[in-house]
User: Which sequence fits this backbone?
């Protein structure tokens, strides 16, 4: 008997056109567009954008050497450019952090207002700069660079004075000193955490795994006499409600489990790197999809309203959970983890996101397993609520 | 009027769809305000959030730690690689430094590179800031160490640290292009961009659904047989769709004014932003009309609402900065009015500080949206005409 | 002896003092009825009279507040699978899967009762013949007309050859030809031994099909019995229409006051009388007219129909809020 139900369960589900569009087309279309929008983020070494500068001698009496000194300093991380057709051109060396040109104050101000440069540096008795306030990162970088320049000058002055006063003496073993001169900190091979914007990728995949809530509500609709005419007819048949329930659940559940695996495979075809631990990722996604299905069955069996609110819940719940997980704005994920971490614990989509992060970060498996456990508990609770809902024998809507 | 009343009744029945989307919007917006409030009336530098683990506890390491915390925002977390990794991923910190025991003693005696452990994120750009601070400080100290012949005498350590303090406190003054309401302008621009996503989604899921119900052939036939003029019915249907979209927009604009203050309307940028946004509302109303006529089914409009809104939000620069979006994708989505409105919001946001608005671009984009509205509307009328002929 | 034998008659459905409330509304109010084996039992009533509630209670789809329901002598519960095995339901709403073909729909619903594939195949073949849908086996429901859909709906409910069949307005919105076919088919089912409970608003169907019927309103049975028994219960004997001109008011009043006359109207030569129960009504009226010197142009007499009785009974008790 179950075989009979499963056979027709699969048939009716797969041949249903709205199902096809929603459950098959949507996740793949969404992943494709999402990837196309964000694939530049997968370039994990994002450096700073080139900062366009105008160097402005404050007054005619400013020594040429001061201007040249600053240019020499900036040239360590940049190069001098020139104007051509109202744009500053340079060698397009990707490593150039600064590109600078010289100019008068009035024309530099105009360039700044017209957004042709990011900042102008006034070379006067004291060094100062003016910047477009939106360019916060550029302003910070420039501030740090110019401050370093000033510090170098000040250091030089202090050391010169110190030598003159006899406070300092040149080292006896110059070679040894040079061998231990500080050149910098070690940057190669240092611990790098995942870029926070990667939350978009994790949350998007989690969203795709969690979105088929409507399939769960469909299960209940197909067995509750008050919710569909076919269910009314089935209720008169000599089969228990549980048989009908599993007969409706299994085809949908299995279909979606397969779809989420295919969706993950699709992300690999697109080249999105989720860390490579495919089996564990798939296990996580399967649980995420199961959580969605049972959320749907719980809603279907407990929400005593018409189709409208259930459809609204089926669409808005995944979006709300995805929003809390950072899919729409990465800052939201931070805020949730900071101020309402318990929300993340009851958010199955958040669990999948955290699980993907844990796998990508390559930390020990306990964090990943914790997400699986959390999802398991969530599924169990939803299943229990479903059983509670469909055990009712009184339905007033018939 | 009858059609309009009917429309409103249908929309009331869709309130369970309206409310979650409005909640999503307000939560996103409120959180963005909380986390990204730019102080754009004076120079505001980016302050990385850092944590320093000092295991040396020497005069140098303590001084160094104090220096780093004076330049950046101090955060305290547990020293554990996983915890640090999570904190960086969640943007709670940007950088972590661990100073090992014996650091001061070993400094200058164990090669050219300091024995520090650093934890950073993948954004090399922001890492360079803190790297630069660390290297600048240590280089200054090192210069004094070398000047003293290789080791700073114990008696001179404190004085030398004071000198380092003096040197490291050298800063270059920075100012910004003047603007009075720059911060509010930025908020308005962000708000209007996110509003585009909500309007797209709600447009299909409420207005679009209502249109499919009203235009359902059996219901429509009943209306027409009753003697209600077909043209009047069509006209009111279209008017209803526009009015409802406009009402949603007005409501959201009022909420925005309450948050930012009504004075923000005095900014030229903001006025143009609102005009552009209003044009966008008109244009996407016609898009909703067209697509619901092509796909006259409630289920399909729900699907369209979700997919188009999400896809557009990612592809046009609503959820993520436009500069990182793949250009061909942006080009593909430039067939939607949202792309042009988001462009205007970016242009006008920046123009608030430069005091010169590139009106040519803004007007051009508004023109494109109006042209799109005309095209979508015309196509809708043609489609209706063709369908009417087929049913006769 | 079977435990559903009452007065030497096998009772397939026994309802005793059934009460079903929806909060303050009493949908079924202390209702009792027996349905004999092999009969077609009609359930009539205006909308909201409790017909659907009663059927759902009998089928154990609804929990009721008081009373007892027995089918085939056994108490009916949601877990009475042996009883359910022998029941077929043809709901008013078309309850088929639009994704499955005609054949697959019947196979699916029949398969809920009959596990054996060979038996099922035979049953499906027979029911397709019965409803004459052989030419449409592979069609999807959306390709079928309203009448064919109704036939499919019927087929899905009876394919497994149930002993007890519930038919809820099975001929709604079908053409007369299809309706006749369905009605003939139902009679055939009865002749083959099935007990049928039939709800409808079409009086002519009841008159054609039902062996017995009950008229419901406000959750109560107002009257039940065979067609003839119910018509005999009416206070109306016959309706007489006489065309006679220039009757004086005094004569009209005299006719009005006649104890056999229930109601009377006279306009433009048309005298319409509704007579109370009793004999020789027409003769008595004609005698009065003749004695007064008036010769009728035409005379028509009609016996009350079930429709008249239905309106008389339920019309007198129309709800204020209906």
Assistant:
């Amino acid at each position: 008997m179950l075989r009979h139900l499963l056979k027709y369960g699969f048939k009716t589900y797969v041949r249903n056109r709205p199902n096809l569009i929603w459950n098959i087309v949507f996740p793949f279309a969404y992943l494709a567009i999402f990837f196309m929008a964000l694939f530049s983020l997968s370039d994990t070494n994002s450096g700073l954008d080139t900062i366009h500068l105008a160097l402005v001698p404050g007054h005619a009496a400013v020594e040429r050497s001061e201007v040249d000194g600053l240019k020499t300093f900036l040239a360590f991380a940049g190069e001098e450019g020139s104007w051509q057709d109202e744009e500053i051109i340079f060698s397009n060396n990707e490593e150039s952090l600064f590109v600078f040109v010289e100019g008068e104050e009035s024309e530099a101000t105009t360039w700044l207002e017209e957004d042709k440069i990011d900042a102008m540096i006034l070379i006067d008795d004291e060094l100062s700069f003016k910047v477009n306030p939106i360019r916060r990162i550029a302003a910070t970088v420039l501030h740090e660079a110019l401050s370093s320049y000033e510090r170098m000058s000040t250091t030089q002055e202090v050391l010169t004075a110190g030598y003159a006063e006899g406070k300092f003496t040149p080292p006896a073993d110059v070679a040894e000193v040079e061998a231990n001169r500080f050149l910098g900190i070690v940057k190669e091979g240092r611990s790098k955490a995942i870029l926070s914007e990667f939350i978009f990728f994790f949350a998007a995949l989690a969203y795709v795994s969690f979105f088929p809530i409507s399939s769960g509500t469909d299960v209940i609709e197909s067995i509750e006499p008050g919710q569909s005419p076919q269910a009314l007819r089935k209720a008169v048949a000599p089969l228990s409600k549980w048989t009908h329930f599993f007969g409706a659940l299994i085809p949908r559940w299995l279909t979606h489990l397969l779809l989420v695996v295919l969706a993950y495979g699709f992300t690999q075809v697109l080249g999105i790197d989720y860390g490579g631990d495919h089996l564990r990722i798939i296990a996580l996604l399967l649980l995420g999809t199961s959580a969605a299905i049972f959320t749907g069955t719980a809603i279907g069996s407990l929400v005593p309203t018409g189709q409208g609110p259930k459809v609204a819940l089926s669409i808005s719940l995944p979006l709300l959970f995805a929003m809390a997980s950072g899919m729409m704005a990465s800052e939201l994920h931070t805020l949730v983890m900071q101020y309402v971490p318990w929300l993340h614990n009851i958010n199955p989509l958040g669990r999948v996101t955290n699980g993907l992060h844990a796998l990508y970060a390559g930390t020990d498996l306990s964090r990943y397993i914790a997400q699986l456990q959390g999802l398991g508990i969530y599924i169990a609770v939803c299943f229990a609520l479903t059983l509670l809902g469909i055990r009712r024998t009184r339905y007033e809507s018939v | 009027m009858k059609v309009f009343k009917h429309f409103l009744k249908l929309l009331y029945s869709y309130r369970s769809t309206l409310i979650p989307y409005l909640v999503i919007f307000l939560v996103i917006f409120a959180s963005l305000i909380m986390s990204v409030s730019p102080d754009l009336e004076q120079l505001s530098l980016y302050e990385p959030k850092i944590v320093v683990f000092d295991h040396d506890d020497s005069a140098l390491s303590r001084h160094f730690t104090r220096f780093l915390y004076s330049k950046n925002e101090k955060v305290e977390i547990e020293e554990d690689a996983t915890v640090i990794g999570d904190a960086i991923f969640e943007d709670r910190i940007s950088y972590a430094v661990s100073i090992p025991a014996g650091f001061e003693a070993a400094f200058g005696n164990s090669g050219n590179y300091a024995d520090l452990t650093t934890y950073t994120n993948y954004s090399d750009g922001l890492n360079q800031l803190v790297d630069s601070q660390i290297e600048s400080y240590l280089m200054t100290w090192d210069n004094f160490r070398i000047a003293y012949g290789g080791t700073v005498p114990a008696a001179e350590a404190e004085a030398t640290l004071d000198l380092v303090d003096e040197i490291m406190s050298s800063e270059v003054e920075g100012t910004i292009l003047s603007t009075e309401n720059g911060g509010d302008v930025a908020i308005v621009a962000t708000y209007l961009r996110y509003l585009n996503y909500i309007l797209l989604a709600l447009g299909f899921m409420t207005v679009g659904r209502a249109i499919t119900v009203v235009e359902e052939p059996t219901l429509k036939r009943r209306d027409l047989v009753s003697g209600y003029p077909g043209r009047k019915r069509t006209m009111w249907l279209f008017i209803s769709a526009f009015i409802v979209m406009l009402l949603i927009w007005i409501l959201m604009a009022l909420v925005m004014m309450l948050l930012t203050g009504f004075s923000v309307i005095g900014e030229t940028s903001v006025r143009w932003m609102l005009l552009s946004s209003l044009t966008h509302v008109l244009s996407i109303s016609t898009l909703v009309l067209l697509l619901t006529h092509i796909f006259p089914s409630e289920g399909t409009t729900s699907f369209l609402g979700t997919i188009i809104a999400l896809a557009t939000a990612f592809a046009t620069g609503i959820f993520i900065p436009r500069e990182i979006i793949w250009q061909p994708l942006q080009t593909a989505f430039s067939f939607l009015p949202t792309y042009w409105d988001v462009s205007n919001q970016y242009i006008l946001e920046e123009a608030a500080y430069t005091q010169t608005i590139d009106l040519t671009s803004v007007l051009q984009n508004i023109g494109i949206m109006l042209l799109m509205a005309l095209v979508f509307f015309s196509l809708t009328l043609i489609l209706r005409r063709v369908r009417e002929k087929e049913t006769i | 002896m079977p435990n559903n034998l009452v007065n030497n008659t096998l009772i397939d459905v026994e309802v005793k003092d059934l009460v079903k409330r929806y909060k303050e509304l009493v949908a079924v109010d202390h209702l009792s009825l027996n349905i004999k084996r092999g009969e077609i039992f009609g359930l009539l009533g205006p909308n909201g009279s409790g017909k659907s509630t009663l059927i759902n209670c009998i089928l154990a789809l609804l929990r009721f507040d008081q009373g007892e329901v027995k089918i085939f002598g056994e108490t009916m519960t949601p877990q009475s699978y042996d009883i359910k095995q022998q029941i077929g339901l043809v709901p008013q709403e078309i309850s088929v899967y639009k994704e499955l073909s005609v054949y697959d729909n019947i196979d699916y619903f029949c398969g809920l009762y009959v596990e054996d594939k060979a038996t099922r195949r035979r049953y499906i073949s027979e029911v397709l013949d019965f409803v004459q849908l052989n030419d449409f086996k592979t069609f999807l429901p959306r390709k079928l007309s309203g009448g064919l859909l109704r036939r499919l709906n019927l087929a899905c409910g009876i394919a497994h050859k149930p002993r007890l069949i519930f038919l809820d307005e099975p001929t709604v919105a079908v053409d007369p030809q299809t309706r006749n076919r369905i009605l003939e088919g139902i009679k055939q089912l009865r002749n083959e031994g099935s007990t049928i409970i039939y709800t409808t608003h079409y009086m002519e169907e009841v008159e054609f099909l039902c062996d017995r019927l009950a008229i419901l309103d406000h959750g109560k049975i107002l009257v039940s019995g065979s067609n003839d028994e119910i018509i005999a219960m009416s206070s109306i004997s016959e309706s007489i229409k006489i065309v006679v001109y220039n009757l004086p008011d005094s004569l009209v009043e005299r006719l009005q006051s006649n104890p056999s006359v229930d109601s009377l109207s006279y306009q433009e030569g048309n005298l319409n009388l509704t007579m109370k129960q009793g004999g020789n009504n027409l003769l008595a009226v004609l005698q009065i007219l003749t004695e007064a010197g008036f010769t009728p142009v035409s005379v028509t007499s009609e016996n009350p129909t079930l429709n008249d009785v239905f309106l008389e009974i339920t019309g007198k008790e129309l709800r204020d809020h209906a």
Observations:
- The beta strands of chain B are 49-54, 73-74, 95-99, 113-114, 117-121, 173-176.
- The mean pLDDT of chain B is 84.
- The longest helix of chain B spans residues 182-214.
